[in-house]
């Protein structure tokens, strides 16, 4: 009996692992390192590092040697060298190419390019005028697109990294830029309309299937848009839509702010929150077709509460985390205001259905400017 118990404990420990997540701030001066113990299901603040300023959007470069943080207020991007023990050393801050007659933006979202020469790409928006830009890792070479008379604050890559799909929330359209090995950001190949949609909020793409997914903020819909292998939209293609909330929930009372695909590529997660002061969040998980990536059906849903103040102004983001040793896909969630980071896992329940399980929650309430985007190290 005792040996059986010891074996159980040992097995549990053998699978335990620590994972790390950098988290920026929307309006503050720190970058946080959070540590997740996946067996104990605990999330703790490991480090509170001094940053060059706020960094609502953060991204690793392709080699994972540097972390980049963007600052919309002064139109800059800072580079940090990632040291041992998840320390960060500020190496420099560069200005993004001036656009829209300003160097001060409302939002900047950055991500690493996925093909050589692996620059950092971003979209910057004043709310009414936007630009797509890139910056070499050294910061010396910058490029920008023509100005876009709209609000672009989200973009995603095609599987081969040769197409950048930028979402314009004003026109409810998706701009398809061709990115060659020697890009100039001038080749806008197509502008596709998200049919019958308003307030499109975030776009992601499938890592292998040729497919884009968009969530709409006010109508709380997930729109699934298949593409041809050349990443262009067939004009007669049906854009499939799913309501992300339970059917009985009135759309007017909720906003949907984010979506993410899990590391196993098997599920797509959406995040919604109430506009009312009851501060409720709803996470919905949809199964994807393993080959095409098409959205199949909702498999799990969960709600939880946190202080978020005015729900209509909140920025809350999902970020895919690792798949842990027992096969559970983790997804993290950061919110501002509310200063919270939480980790959730999709677990197989005894009755054969799926459920969302909490893997830890960190409150960073001493820092009201927390939390911006998260980025998992391991
Ligand atoms: C930038 O300034 C120029 C010259 O004043 C003006 O023609 C143009 O419309 C401005 N662009 C924006 C996006 O405000
Ligand atoms: C457009 O969307 C609204 C709300 O989502 C829906 O009621 C309506 O039927 C849709 N119309 C078309 C033509 O798809
Ligand atoms: C869409 O149009 C293309 C070419 O015009 C055709 O080959 C394809 O079968 C059509 N697809 C559907 C779903 O109608
Ligand atoms: C998900 O897709 C990415 C990109 O192709 C790939 O690297 C990864 O191995 C896939 N994950 C699984 C579990 O198939
Ligand atoms: C992190 O450190 C800064 C500077 O000392 C401090 O203002 C902030 O409150 C700290 N954050 C947390 C969550 O304790």
UniProtKB/TrEMBL annotation:
<feature type="signal peptide">
    <location>
        <begin position="1"/>
        <end position="16"/>
    </location>
</feature>
<dbReference type="GO" id="GO:0017057">
    <property type="term" value="F:6-phosphogluconolactonase activity"/>
</dbReference>
<dbReference type="InterPro" id="IPR011044">
    <property type="entry name" value="Quino_amine_DH_bsu"/>
</dbReference>
<dbReference type="InterPro" id="IPR050282">
    <property type="entry name" value="Cycloisomerase_2"/>
</dbReference>
<protein>
    <recommendedName>
        <fullName>Isomerase YbhE</fullName>
    </recommendedName>
</protein>
<dbReference type="InterPro" id="IPR015943">
    <property type="entry name" value="WD40/YVTN_repeat-like_dom_sf"/>
</dbReference>
<keyword id="KW-0732">Signal</keyword>
<dbReference type="Pfam" id="PF10282">
    <property type="entry name" value="Lactonase"/>
</dbReference>
<comment type="similarity">
    <text>Belongs to the cycloisomerase 2 family.</text>
</comment>
<dbReference type="InterPro" id="IPR019405">
    <property type="entry name" value="Lactonase_7-beta_prop"/>
</dbReference>
């Amino acid at each position: 009996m005792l040996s059986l118990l010891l074996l159980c404990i040992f097995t549990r420990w053998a699978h335990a692992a620590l994972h790390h997540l950098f988290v920026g701030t929307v309006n503050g001066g720190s970058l946080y390192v959070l540590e997740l113990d996946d067996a104990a299901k605990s999330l703790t603040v490991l480090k509170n590092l001094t940053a060059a300023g706020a960094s609502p959007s953060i991204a690793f470069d392709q080699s994972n040697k540097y972390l980049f943080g963007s600052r919309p207020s002064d139109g800059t991007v800072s580079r940090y060298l990632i040291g041992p023990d998840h320390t960060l050393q500020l190496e420099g801050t560069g200005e993004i190419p001036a656009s829209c007659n300003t160097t001060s933006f409302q939002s900047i979202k950055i991500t690493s390019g996925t093909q050589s020469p692996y620059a950092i790409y971003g979209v910057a928006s004043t709310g009414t005028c936007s630009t797509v830009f890139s910056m070499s890792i050294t910061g010396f070479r910058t490029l920008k697109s023509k100005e876009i008379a709209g609000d672009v604050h989200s973009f995603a890559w095609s599987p081969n990294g040769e197409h950048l799909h930028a979402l314009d929330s004003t026109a409810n359209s998706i701009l398809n830029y061709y990115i060659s090995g020697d890009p100039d950001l001038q080749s806008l190949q197509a502008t596709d309309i998200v049919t019958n949609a308003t307030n499109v909020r975030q776009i992601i793409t499938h890592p292998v299937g040729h497919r884009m997914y968009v969530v709409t903020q006010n109508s709380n819909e997930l729109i699934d848009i298949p593409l041809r292998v050349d990443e262009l939209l067939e004009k007669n293609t049906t854009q499939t839509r799913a309501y992300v909330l339970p059917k009985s929930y009135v759309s007017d009372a909720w906003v949907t702010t984010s979506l993410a695909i899990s590391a196993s590529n098997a599920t797509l997660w959406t995040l919604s929150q109430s506009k009312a002061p009851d501060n409720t969040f709803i996470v919905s998980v949809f199964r994807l077709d393993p080959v095409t990536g098409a959205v199949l059906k909702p498999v799990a849903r969960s709600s939880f509460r946190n202080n978020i103040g005015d729900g209509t102004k909140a920025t809350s983001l999902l970020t895919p985390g690792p798949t842990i040793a027992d096969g559970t896909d983790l997804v993290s969630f950061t919110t501002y205001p509310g200063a919270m980071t939480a980790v959730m896992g999709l677990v197989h329940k005894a009755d054969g259905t799926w459920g969302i399980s909490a893997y830890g929650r960190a409150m960073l309430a001493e820092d009201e400017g927390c939390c911006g985007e998260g980025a998992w190290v391991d």
